[in-house]
Design goal:
The chain has one helix and four strands, in the order αββββ. With 58 residues, the chain is of the alpha+beta class. It has a domain at 25-58. It is rod-shaped.
Length: 58
């Protein structure tokens, strides 16, 4: 069984994990009401998506 010869340093571990952090989702304005929403998601404010009303809102 393969076993590391030496302990991996904290610096080296941190460098490897530097790309694992989550990034904030990109927001864009809804073309109908102008509220900010994630792309490819139904607008929570007006229920509009891809040029049509998907969810009825008050």
């Amino acid at each position: 069984m393969a076993v590391p010869k030496r302990k991996q340093s904290n610096s080296r571990t941190g460098k490897r994990r530097s790309h694992d952090g989550l990034k904030a989702r990109e927001l864009q304005a809804c073309p109908r009401c102008g509220s900010m929403k994630p792309s490819h998601v139904v607008c929570e404010n007006c229920g509009h998506y891809m040029g049509r009303t998907v969810v009825e809102t008050e």
